[in-house]
Amino acid sequence: MAAARYRDRHAVARKKSDHLDAMVLANILRTDAAAHRPLPSDSELAQAIAVLARAQQDAVWDRTQAGNKLRSHLRNYFPGFLAAVQPLHDGLHSPIARTVLAAVPTPTQAAKLTRAQLRALLATAGRKRGIDAEANRLHAALRLTQMRQLPLVEQAMGRQTTALVQQLEAACTSADELAQAAVEAFDTHPDAEIITSFPGLGSLTGARVLAEIGDDRARFTDARGLKAFAGAAPITRASGKSVAVLARRIKNQRLASAGYVWAFSALTASPGARAHYDRRREAKDRHTAAQRNLFNRLLGCLHHCLTTRALYDEAIAFPTPTGPEVDAAV
Predict the structure, then answer these.
(1) Residues in CB range of 319: below 8 A, 6 or more apart
(2) Is 8's pLDDT higher than 90?
(3) Cα(271)–Cα(114) distance, rounded to whole angstroms?
(4) What is the pLDDT of residues 183-197, one digit of tens each?
(5) Which of 161, 259, 22 is nearest to 3 (CA)?
(6) FRET partner for 110 with CA separation of 20 to 30 A, picked from 11, 175, 237, 328?
């Protein structure tokens, strides 16, 4: 959009050509170079972490998409399986659900499973404890009466389920392997100790954050630039007597996605973060706006810690409020 606005300075008729675009880009760098952020000079390790973290995030999105396709398909002919795997951790994405569904993709086959066969499938999926109890639960759940498709239709849908399970299995395997590789590379980075010292930031989420902000400390001269890059800082539009404070739409979507997870996890890991979120909610902010405000606060702390090479300190990040109201409450 910015390049299109520059083009209007040279072509009122809004014509477009490669020659004109090249001239526009050259004039942008010639006249307004100071208004644009230069490309970051990240280290080789940071670039490798960015490749792995982004690939892992893409694999997670592919896993979610494959799971949604499989779930939608099972609702058409095998809803009892969805109810049976709902209590499992990760539900349909769990290794137990994928292993059982790959072995018995139709209700007819699932109803014929014995407890011994279920125990074998649970062991194959990696279950270590409570195998007998879980086998009994699945044995009863897979035999419940439900609406059924015609035999040939059910068999055809089972074939489709087998193909969808294979796609889900590949997506889950890719996400797990890439997560392990990203964590291993991130743990060797000098900034890993500082980033993981923050509440709600583990190695994987920290790798995603480092992948987007990089390790070139000259890239963001102050915390405001980092907050705007992440979409945490709001945009104020003032015209005359009207003032509107809006959420930032143009942002790094991957960093904003990681920030939502980070802020949500920090609510239970940090009393100061929880108190900050509660104050924003009391100020009539919605849940998403309050989390974005908390993310904005945490980004400022992260920029300070990375610049000064200091670990996160709860007392400094969220100092205890003092004042007449607090003294009166005490």
Answers:
(1) none
(2) no
(3) 49
(4) 999 999 999 999 999
(5) 22
(6) 175
Query: Which is nearest to 119 in space by CA: 103, 105, 136, 107?
Result: 136
**What is d(CA 78, CA 85) in angstroms, rounded to the nearest whole number?**
12
Contact 299, 226 (CB under 8 A): yes
Alpha-carbon gap, residue 251 to 61, rounded angstroms: 19
Q: Which residues pair with 242 in a beta bridge?
A: 239
> What residues contact 27, with CB distance under 8 A and at least 6 apart?
6, 10
Task: Kindly report, residue by residue over 268-307, the tens digit of the pLDDT.
Answer: 999 999 999 999 999 999 999 999 999 999 999 999 999 9
**In this structure, are residues 311 and 305 in contact, taking their beta carbons and an 8 Å threshold?**
yes
Alpha carbon distance 312, 324 (integer Å):
29
For 26-35, 219-228, 252-261, 295-304, which range has the lowest pLDDT when averaged over its residues?
26-35
Question: Considering only CA atoms, which of 179, 188, 234, 248 is closest in space to residue 208?
Answer: 179
134, amino acid identity: E
CA atoms of 190 and 181, how far apart (whole Å):
17
Is 212 within 8 Å of 252 (Cβ atoms)? yes
Distance between CA atoms of residues 205 and 313, nearest Å: 19
CA 217 – CA 58 distance, rounded (Å): 27
Strand partners, 237: 244
Query: Could you identify the residue written with the tokens 């407890």?
Result: 115
- Residues 84/113, Cβ–Cβ less than 8 Å: no
* Contact (Cβ atoms closer than 8 angstroms) between residue 155 and residue 104: no
Residues pairing with 253 in the sheet: none
